[in-house]
């Protein structure tokens, strides 16, 4: 089942975050991930949203996400993201045949 990773970030070191962004897409693609959205001007429709950027990724399965997120290749570049940002990343299961839950 498809899974989606949603990252919501506040960027406090744009230069270091830029290094991460420059290396990100090739690593993601090699692990079967897809970048669906990346927005620094998200429109808040309801509630409060304290972040600078939202990123939405998709993977064919939770296992594919885990292989990517724990790969040595991704762990190496993610050091820059971790040092340059604060935020949350959540993993969401796609809607399968069991909907509505």
Provide an overview of this structure.
The chain has three helices and four strands, in the order βαββααβ. It has helices spanning 14-30, 62-70, 72-84, and strands at residues 3-11, 34-39, 53-59, 85-93. It is flat, with a radius of gyration of 14 Å. A four-stranded antiparallel beta sheet has the order 2-3-1-4. The protein has 101 residues and is an alpha+beta fold. It has one domain (3-43, 50-93): Alpha-Beta Plaits (2-Layer Sandwich). Helix 1 packs antiparallel against helix 3.
Structural class: alpha+beta
End-to-end separation:
15 Å
SSE succession: EHEEHHE
User: Uncertain regions: pLDDT < 50 for 5+ in a row?
Assistant: none
Radius of gyration: 14 Å
Spatial order of the strands forming the largest sheet? 2-3-1-4
Number of helices: 3
Shape: flat
Sheet-strand content, in percent, reads 25-35%
Average pLDDT works out at 94
Proportion of residues in helical segments: 25-40%
From the 3D structure, determine the CATH topology: Alpha-Beta Plaits
Level-2 CATH architecture: 2-Layer Sandwich
Q: Outline of this structure?
A:
It is flat and about 40 Å long.
